[in-house]
Amino acid sequence: MLARIGQMRSNYLLQNHEATLASVVKVLGTDKIPPEIIREANFYQAKSFLALEQLDKALESFRKVAVEVSSKEGAESKFRIAEIYMRKNLDKRAEEEVFSFVNMNTPHQFWMASAFILLADIYSRAGDDFQAQHTLQSILDNYDLVNDGIIETAQRKLNDLRRKQTLLGAPKPVEQLEIKF
C-alpha cells in the first residue's frame, strides 16, 4: 500500500497526469485505506483530470473531496467546482457553489477569498460591475494574509473594473421627474 501511495504522490508532483490517474486507480483499489488517503487520491485524480481538460471527470472527482472543506483539499475542491462551472458558462451554478462554500465555514482563507474573486468575475460577466467592485473591495478590506497573491489579484481586477467604468463613462444620475396631478 505504501509503495502505491508513494508512486501516486510522485506522479502527481511530477505532473505526470496520465500516470497519476493510473496510480490513483491502484491506490483506491487497495483494501483498508484510511479516509485521508482516499481524499488525497480523489483530489489528485480531480487535479489530473482538470490538467487534462477533462472537466466533467474532474467535477465528479472534486465533488467526492468537497463534501467537507476543513481540509485544504476539500476547500480547494469546492472552489474548483465553482471554477469549472464558470469555465463551462454555467455562471448560476458557479454562483450557487460559491455561496454553498461560504456556508460551509472553511478555515482556509485563501480558497474562500479565491471563491469571492471568482464571484466578482461572475458578477462582472453578468454586467453587474457595481456588485463585482464591492465584492473585490470587501476582499481588500477584510483579507488578512499577505504574499499569497489574493490582495494583488483583487486589486488588479478592481482596477480593471474601474478603468472599464471610466472608459465607458460612469452612469449619470437619473433626473427626478416631478409629476403634478
TrEMBL record:
Database matches in InterPro entries: TPR-like_helical_dom_sf, TPR_rpt
Pfam families, alphabetized: TPR_6 (PF13174)
* Name the UniProt record assigns to this protein: Tetratricopeptide repeat protein
